Amino acid sequence: MESDSSHIVYILGTAGSGKSALTLKLSGLLFDEGWRVVRVNMDPGVRQLPYTPEVDVRDYVNLEQIIEQYGLGPNGALIAASDILVTKIDDIKKEIESFDADYIVVDTVGQMEIFAYRSAGLLFVTALSKNSVVVHLIDALLAKTPASFVSMVLLGASLKVRFPVPHITVLSKTDLISEEEIERICRWNDPVVLADALEISTRGQQRELNVTLLNALKMQGYIGEVIPVSSVTMDGMNDLAGGLEHIFDSYSWDPEESYRWESE
Ligand SMILES: Nc1nc2c(ncn2[C@@H]2O[C@H](COP(=O)(O)OP(=O)(O)OP(=O)(O)O)[C@@H](O)[C@H]2O)c(=O)[nH]1
Ligand SMILES: [Mg+2]
Q: Considering the entire predicted model, what is its pTM?
């Protein structure tokens, strides 16, 4: 792995999909492997975290104060906070860089759309490092049927459109479902298997829409490997760390072309 720049791992996923727990466990594993790791909390509204972040956006923006000052509700305040954070990117970047870490694991805000679809998230990804990977968590409990799996893959595709960096898809919280269910969901990365499953489990307009979407996702290469991971049992955590290392080892950066990743 190159040592001249840090590798940034953005953990994204729907609310409660296990982002913070994965931040704790993945960074712990990377640390045990001998890497210098920094954990960044990007959620200005979080009250409790399962880890103590080395860099914390709550040091840069005070959500309670924003709520009081502007009379905003919690979501409006989060949006305002993310806009304020944009003005502090340089300071946050400096703080992160001061650790001279190999890996920077970024735990993003619970309301995924705030990081994913507002300008702040993209500005951070662009500003922080050339070597970035998005880890998209699909909550195992939300992906048990073929149609719900397609919905989650679509969400992942919209993240790929938004963040032109390599992505890894993780099926999170796998300890909450059976081995058979894990295997079945992971096999759906084969569009033929998924199409068969949709054929059986959906009907009418829902089936038509799902199959059309599936074909589009397949054509664009948006359906790929899913790594099953549990932050409770640590099952799959080594596979995730290995997947990250593999991507970072073959990462190439061309400032002329924005982000680009050349696979081997
Ligand atoms: N069984 C099980 N529970 C998990 C796992 N990962 C997280 N959890 C639990 O799921 C809940 C949400 O986990 P978090 O890590 O806070 O999820 P999050 O995506 O950071 O949540 P928000 O930031 O609020 O969106 C907590 O009660 C965790 O203990 C897992 O792998 N297995
Ligand atoms: Mg969280």
A: 0.92
